[in-house]
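ok trying this again, last paste got cut off
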Amino acid sequence: QVQLVESGGGLVQAGGSLRVSCAVSGRTSSFHGLAWYRQAPGRQREPVARVAFDGSTLYRDSVKGRFTISWDNAKNTVSLQMNSLKSEDTADYYCNELNGSWPWGQGTQVTVSS
């Protein structure tokens, strides 16, 4: 069983920065990368950024140039640096493998005040 523990969320003013992290542990079978997802109140969970283990990254258009995803293989941690935050970034943030097939963690809440 895989365990995902997200941390680092909080309340920040618009234009500010936050870094969220996710510790991955447990019996992970072969996977090819990790991703961050988010779910805003009343909305479906959506992918935000992904990093493949070949080093390639992909971002949804609305966060390009503002968010940076990174994977620390030694620490089994995937992080998301979020800069120039906007109110529309307010959501619960989750990590998972690229297809979202692992059990979801509790997420970490990010609130951006305008």
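PB: full thing came through this time. The first strand starts at residue 2 and ends at 7.
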